[in-house]
Design a protein that fits this description.
This protein has one domain: Divalent-metal-dependent TIM barrel enzymes (TIM Barrel, Alpha-Beta Barrel). 40% of the residues lie in helices and 14% in strands. The protein has 6 helices and 4 strands; from the N terminus they run αβαβααβαβα. A 4-stranded parallel β-sheet has the order 1-2-3-4. Helix 2 links the parallel strand 1 and strand 2. It is globular. The termini are far apart.
Length: 136
């Protein structure tokens, strides 16, 4: 059986709110484990909702990942995707994207589509918004 290194699989650890776990609540805790494991196949996954809920700031949480994040979930504390309902947004998406770029984030991203009814219009709106932010 091939090893994790041979397959190219990357296992990512994500900090979670204290109501779900007491093990890894901040990216400092996640990074301590990533550094302890010391494998290029073990990394960090960011989540903007978790960053908002558990870090002193979203920016601080991104920086605490020390450029090791390979993926990020992008969604509001309300669980809406960015750009779908701008009047209800809490997070500063242009700033978040700026910090990700400054920290050298090159990973993948996903949004959570928890919309009532047909999710396609919301997904299209989120994609268009995020493309403008990331490509602008």
């Amino acid at each position: 059986m091939p090893s994790v290194q041979e397959t190219g699989v990357v296992i990512m650890l994500e900090a979670a709110e204290s109501k779900f776990t007491s093990l890894f609540n901040t990216n400092e805790e996640v990074m301590a484990m990533v550094e302890k494991i010391g494998s290029p196949n073990f990394s960090v996954m960011l989540d903007t909702h978790q960053l908002w809920a558990m870090e002193s700031s979203v920016e601080h949480g991104i920086k605490a990942a020390k450029g090791q994040a390979k993926h990020i979930h992008l969604y509001e504390p309300s669980h809406l995707p960015p750009g779908v309902s701008p009047e209800k947004e809490v997070l500063d998406w242009p700033h978040i994207v700026q910090v990700l770029k400054k920290e050298g984030f090159k990973g993948s991203a996903s949004v959570v589509i928890v919309l009532e009814g047909d999710p396609e219009p919301g997904a299209r709106k989120a994609i268009a918004y995020l493309r403008r932010l990331f490509n602008g």
